[in-house]
TrEMBL record:
Keywords: Cytoplasm. One of its GO terms (biological process) is cellular response to L-leucine. One of its GO terms (molecular function) is L-leucine binding. Pfam families: PA26. This is Sestrin-2-like. The lineage of its organism: Eukaryota, Metazoa, Ecdysozoa, Arthropoda, Crustacea.
Length: 443
């Protein structure tokens, strides 16, 4: 059964998977996916340990800024310690205001990319350049932010943050969570209760287009109209009340809006707001029924390989770009052809649905993927988990009265696999928007 609890109003609230014990580290939990773990470690080394544009203390400080967006105590403590070990100036740890302007300038990028990356624009790159960051430094800094946003999602979802004993905050649980399936998916409850057997039946009944099961495509990008500029003073962010919507002509929405109440900036969030103020700036649905478009939906082809990858390679290093690209492709294509205790099973429809659903939360969609597939293989509780994990992982609750699983009969390694897919899809979505802004400023 999906790890979820019901609120007093009967709405579903997602819980973390509870797969960690206090003495476990992330590598222990990822050990069931050795190929991915190898790429994961390689990328951490490339991002944080190789001498690149930013020096060691700057890298660690930017990382702890990113960890604060989703209130990840594990990463905050780790990066504070690494900052000190690298000889970072102690006064920087007194708060963001004590860091140099070139590092402080990444604050707005941190906020926007973590919560509403479609609002990230060339004007943000312009401000970073004005603050004294070179292209190599700003691209490296953006990559660190995005990497640790994704890592925060993973640590919360797996239960590592909760298991450490550091997650002692009284997190504000959203009053409503709706992630689809209640409309256009009348058999949604069958998947929750029927587990692997129903999932296999659903996947078998789908006619999978060859494009849906291909690796991350190498299609050239289709030029889109520019994203509207979003500018803000250095210490604040425009918090628009209007919600962006998908461009017309694309498939209809596959999920209902998720309403996340704004977190308050009170004492219990002080250690996070110290390095990343504006805690109340959170995710707003890219799409809401009846809403008007603030930004166009990005076609899938307008994404990673030709813009994201090329900008990263151009301004950092080919090795870093390759490491990120390989990790994306490893996660996207990874399969063992099993589902629960069943062997020789193609899980392509399920895995693709997780990836594309996650990216659709950020306004990125393929025009050659049948989004009705999502309602067939992802039920409402699983969508709630994926959406909460992706956009507000700090709000995953501890469910003492539910089994630590997503779908009945899935193995622990398969639950971890689901988290990997969502975390990597999120990271790729952020990278696309960030590098698209870089390209538009540079060109």
């Amino acid at each position: 059964m999906f790890a979820g609890v019901a609120s007093s109003s009967g709405t579903i609230m997602a819980s973390h998977l509870g797969l960690a014990s206090p003495d476990q580290v992330l590598e222990d939990i990822l050990a069931g996916h050795q190929d991915y773990l190898h790429k994961f470690i390689e990328l951490y080394s490339a991002v944080m340990e190789h001498e690149d544009a930013l020096c060691a203390e700057e890298r660690n400080y930017v990382a702890l800024m990113a960890a604060c967006r989703h209130k990840c105590s594990v990463l905050l403590s780790e990066q504070r310690a690494r900052f000190t070990d690298s000889g970072g100036p102690p006064q920087w740890l007194e708060g963001l205001d004590h860091a140099p302007e070139r590092i402080r300038s990444l604050h707005i990028a941190n906020i926007v990319l973590a919560h509403r990356p479609w609002m990230f624009h060339r004007s943000h790159i312009e401000e970073l350049v004005k603050a004294g960051l070179s292209f190599a430094e700003l691209v490296h800094g953006l990559t660190i932010l995005i990497y640790f946003h994704s890592m925060s999602s993973m640590l919360h979802a797996l239960g590592i943050e909760a298991a450490t004993g550091q997650a002692d905050l009284d997190y504000h649980v959203p009053s409503q969570l709706g992630a689809g399936g209640s409309e256009g998916s009348p058999r949604s409850s069958e998947l929750s209760t029927g587990g692997v057997a129903v999932l296999l039946q659903r996947m078998k009944g789908l006619t999978t287009n060859s494009n849906n099961s291909a690796a991350v495509p190498d299609h050239p990008y289709q030029h889109q109209s520019p994203l509207p500029p979003v500018t803000a003073p250095h210490n604040t962010v425009r918090n628009s009340n209007s919600d962006a919507a998908y461009a017309t002509g694309l498939p209809g929405p596959v999920f209902d809006a998720v309403e996340l109440d704004e977190a308050s900036e009170d004492e219990k969030y002080m250690r996070f707001s110290l390095y990343s103020p504006n805690i109340s700036f959170t995710y707003k649905d890219f799409y809401r029924r009846g809403g008007k478009s603030e930004a166009p939906t990005l076609k899938y082809q307008h994404q990673w390989e030709e813009i994201g990858f090329s900008m990263l390679a151009k301004f950092t290093s080919q090795d870093l770009a390759d490491s990120i690209d390989i990790k994306f492709k490893t996660a996207f294509n990874m399969t063992y052809n099993t589902c629960g205790d069943r062997k020789n099973v193609s899980t392509t429809p399920f895995r693709r649905a997780i990836w594309y659903y996650t990216q659709s939360l950020y306004g990125i969609r393929r025009d050659d993927y049948d989004y009705s597939t999502i309602n067939e293989v992802l039920d409402r509780p699983l969508k709630v988990f994926l959406k909460t994990m992706s956009v507000a992982p700090e709000r995953l609750v501890t469910a003492h009265d539910s089994a630590p699983s997503i779908i009945d009969d899935l193995r622990t390694s398969e639950q971890v696999h689901i988290v990997i897919l969502a975390a990597e899809a999120r990271m790729q979505a952020e990278m696309v928007y960030a590098m698209l802004a870089v390209e538009r400023y540079y060109m």
